[in-house]
Amino acid sequence: MIAYLLTIVLLLLIAPLLLSFIKALKMRLLFKKPASIWQGYRNFAKLMHKETIVSEEASAITRVAPFLVLSPLLVILFFLPPVVHGAYYVSFVDAFTITGLIALSTFFLMLLGLDSASAFGGMGSSREAFIAALVEPAMVLTIFSVSMMAGDLGVGQAGVNLAAHFPKEHMASFLFAAISFFILLIAENGRIPVDNPETHLELTMVHEAMVLDITGVYLAIIETASSVKFVIFASLFASLFLPFGLEYSAPAAIGMFVLKLFAIAAAVALIEVNTAKLRLFKVPNLLGIAIVFAFLSLITFYVLGA
Q1: Measured torsion, CA atoms of residues 68, 70, 71, 72, in degrees rounded to the nearest 10
Q2: Cβ 205 vs Cβ 123: under 8 Å
Q3: How far apart are CA 108 and CA 214, in angstroms?
Q4: Do residues 75 and 101 lie in contact, with contact meaning Cβ atoms separated by under 8 Å?
Q5: Is the bond into 137 cis (omega within 30 degrees of 0)?
Q6: Is the pLDDT of residue 70 over 90?
Q7: How far, in Å, CA of 299 to CA of 294, rounded?
Q8: pTM of whole model > 0.85?
Q9: Helices 119-150 & 155-164 angle (0-180, nearest 10)
Q10: Other CB atoms closer than 10 Å to residue 241's CB: what's the count?
Q11: How confident is the model over 125-153, as a mean pLDDT?
Q12: In angstroms, rounded to a whole number, what is the distance separating the alpha carbons of residues 16 and 8?
């Protein structure tokens, strides 16, 4: 139980660091002066000391929604696969529960964007709904496919089973699912080529448009939710698609898990540096690829057994 709780605390602490690491690595690759990898913590501290201003047009939803955006994501942290061998984990939570909690967080974020009654907020919320409608079915299919290969529908138990016995006989299905989930990781976290988290340009922004009218503590909570969502997806990818290191001793297993998270963050940074942002109506093509790979994973597993 102690290792279980320490893992959750570790993920919360490392979440802002991963996003700062992505930004610093991108600037390094673009031959610019890199930002500090501690910038995420500095931004949080700065926002916590800023005055919180709420639009006169906004209702009580604006004051409640940031907490409702963060809460489902914090619940998901308790359902992730274990990092240390023998640590406690929740074994009965399946793909529908995790995807539903992420969708609930996204719903309250869209509600927050709509509540300010600004053109930017409504535009961002509609775009987020458009993207989420394509991401969530593919995510259910992908996690369900991996869970079937692992022999258990519970995500936590699937991670343990994959670490104990990697399904080499189903390598084709496994690779299809990994490609699908990585595309979903990029899309759900608003990274290039789906969204650009570093711009406020009207024609391109999605996530930033929904939070443009809030500041102070509320913005700090939303930014925390964004970093927690990224670490959730990175943790799921590390546990389900890079299932090694669990058999090590506790310090080595935790160190290996952290290295996997940073490797995933580095892969995201490399893709962002070498890829242009897609037009909004080109995004379904990319997410369609994720859905196709998820279906291919299931079909290959059931029909060909590969």
Answers
A1: 100
A2: no
A3: 14
A4: yes
A5: no
A6: yes
A7: 9
A8: yes
A9: 50
A10: 20
A11: 90
A12: 14
